[in-house]
Fold these 2 entries.
Entry 1:
Amino acid sequence: MINQACGSGIFVNFAGNLEYTMNILVCITSVPDTTSKISFSDNNTKFVSAGITYIIGPYDDYALARAVELKEAKGSGNITVIHVGEADSEPVIRKALAIGADDAVRVNAAATDGFFVAEQIAAYARSKNFDLILMGRESIDYNSGIVHGLVGELMGIPSISPVMKLEINGNEAIMDKEIEGGKETLSAPLPLVLGCQEPIAEWKIPSMRGIMSARTKPLVVIDPVTHSKLIEFEKFELPAPRTTCKMVSETNVEELVNLLKSEAKVI
Amino acid sequence: MSVLVFLETSDNQIKKSSLEAMVYGRSIASMSGGTVSALVMGNPDNLSEASLCGAKRIFQIKDERFTYSDAQAYSESLIEAANQSSATVMILAKSAFTDSLTSKIAILWKAAAATNVVSLPDSVENFIVKRSIFTGKAFEYIKLNSGNKILSVKKNAVELTESPSAGEIIAFQPNLSSRAFSIKSISSEKATGEVLLSDAEIVVSGGRGLKGPENWSLITDLAKVLGAATGCSKPVSDLNWRPHHEHVGQTGIKVSPNIYFAIGISGAIQHVAGISSSKVIVAINKDPEAPIFKAATYGIVGDAFEIVPKLTQALKAVL
């Protein structure tokens, strides 16, 4: 069962003061690390995971780090991580707990597409009172970049991405959002769904104490909800290999100019 | 199958990537005998290019409240324009802003969505499209199973070709819900007069090999001669030598220019992932073993401080 006591609300602390606790949901992906060589099997229909190291999605890792910072700064609150994936992704969830999340939920299903993932997250979050739902701006495997927006819309709350700075002031979030060629400072009332990116926070390396405590933190496994299957996967493809690099002498930059002009025809 | 294309602007210009989306939308419409309309905000200087690229009708909104910080108003407007023009397919140019539109519209308009699309559908009946995944390291083919569809097209995946059309301009005043304009913009900082990195035809990027921000004129001088945007590697933006919005790579901006110059950049796999859809990659590095030469089309091994000024001069002579 899911711990209902972590719902957002007004609590009376030991000093007898009214205190607003912040309740954050961080959505994480489990993805091949950024140095992975990508290959497929079974007639280009299966991703080859042998030899691949899985990590928390780098953008999700920034979101998690900022959630931990916000909770530390406030001295109260709860961070839940949610992941849509099969049991083999549990080490990645444990790592998120070691970094500082308080509890975790795994929706027991392969993440087939962005819609599916968003529907699972929204179905879970709808029954809770999260002030913030944070995730990366996109997953680095399927690069859809739309899950935060889908979750926001499914829940009927605003979503903003890519957020590179986040401060909470009472019931309001002040954010810097990256725009092409610069940034924009925005404010919006909570609750919000945010797609995060650097430099919102520094990645956190789990401490030994964090790793030990992560082992006993609650990790609840729930079944997926049914979803509208709008997208059907057909097959993968690898890009054509690049031709070998043509070397030009350092004393002959004119040759490079000629190649760009006559051979590649790009200038 | 009629199509609606969203034309995103920057510095009062329709972005090149949005014109590419226009051409893509035109192709889908002609595959199925439909028409293609467009929606634009404001009065961009190059509005006529939209009709050159095939727009039959242009829904034009002139409303100061519309900003790129609020996706709600744009999403509702696009849906209303699509319904008015009987469009069942919406095409956008992939960007951080259109990601927000794509997801909102997918839910509100009950549409199947695909981002980062690099090919036309195999047929309008099947609607299988190819999209870029693993940050350019692979592709997937997916089928969109829904009456309404929304696609965002990856930059430089479509060649700009003209097919002049009427481009009738319709002054458009959409009915907006109370959810529009709930996000408040406090301020914005934007580099003006510079070529947009993600939209650029040529990108000149520098890495740690340049030794410090004081040497960046090497990069900017070359960029100036080429009319190029400037970029940098992750270490350079982490060290604050250059602003974060110039960081090119897996967790930064993904570029797909005609020429990408990697100067003093070793070519970590994360950097290469962000540049892999460039047409031509030129690498200049003093280390012949640098992995960037594996990704490059042309390479020069040597000291960037000597080579780059010579290259800038040589290009100045021919351009």
Entry 2:
Amino acid sequence: MTGASRGIGRAIAIALGAEGACVVVNYQSNHGKAAETVEAITSAGGEAKALQFDVSDGAAVEAAMKQIMTEMGAIHILVNNAGVAVNTLTLGAKDADFKRALDVNLGGTFHCTRAALRSLMRASGGGRVINVTSIVGEIGVAGQGPYAAAKAGVIGLTKSWAREYASRGLTVNAVSPGVIDTDMTASEMSETRKAELVKTIPIGRIGTSDDVAHAVVFLSGPKSGYITGQVVRVNGGLFM
Amino acid sequence: MAENIEEKVMKIVAEQFEVPLDKVALNSLFMDDLKADSLSVVELVLAIEEAFGLEIPDEDAEKIKTVGDVVNYVKARAK
């Protein structure tokens, strides 16, 4: 469960923990928040532990996955959620912005899946990979070109992997959140902007992290074995 | 030493393809006899790399068709 110290990742980690999954709560720097996520899971009777590693660092990811395998024996479900928003118009953009958007959002998904694949391929009952993409990757947003590119790239990986590993009972899907109430959107959008957006959302409200978590729980479970290569949109109808 | 390599390789093959050790022969073809697909061949190469501390480049991996090929390859690299 990458990027699980806050936001959508945290909600997914808690929801999976409640379903009986033993959750590894990955975080990059927010040690305190990650510990809170673990606490939220364990105090509800679940099992969890926090593990720091930077998903954009391939070698660090390999080492971390090895450690997880040693301590927990196997990886059955991988949720690639770690992501950073990068706001920049392409006019005047810096190389570093483009690189960061790709390295964390897309590179992270690639690194983690690659490292966990051998275990996922052997998961009895079928392994599960869920990649968190975004409505931004599907329809584009002015000022978020690099982020949109990375998120769209995650969809390409999702579909390729779905085909590559189906023979091993592994399903690979993406969830595409719309506008969700998290730190990431709070920092990007003013309240007035949010109120304007709500008028365009058929369901008539901003989404919650739990809205996304419920979809991930379904896709991680034993009843979704015939669903693979799909992008499940959790956006209140904002984009269909 | 040479015999150890053969035994070790055959054990790894038996594990990877989930067949009993006595069904693994030097001339077993991965694709035909052991019902391998491209994914399981890659998995096998990875397992061999780990077991013997080697890195096997793709061009070499492509030439491996039988269990005997693996044994010979490892022996040649071990020199």
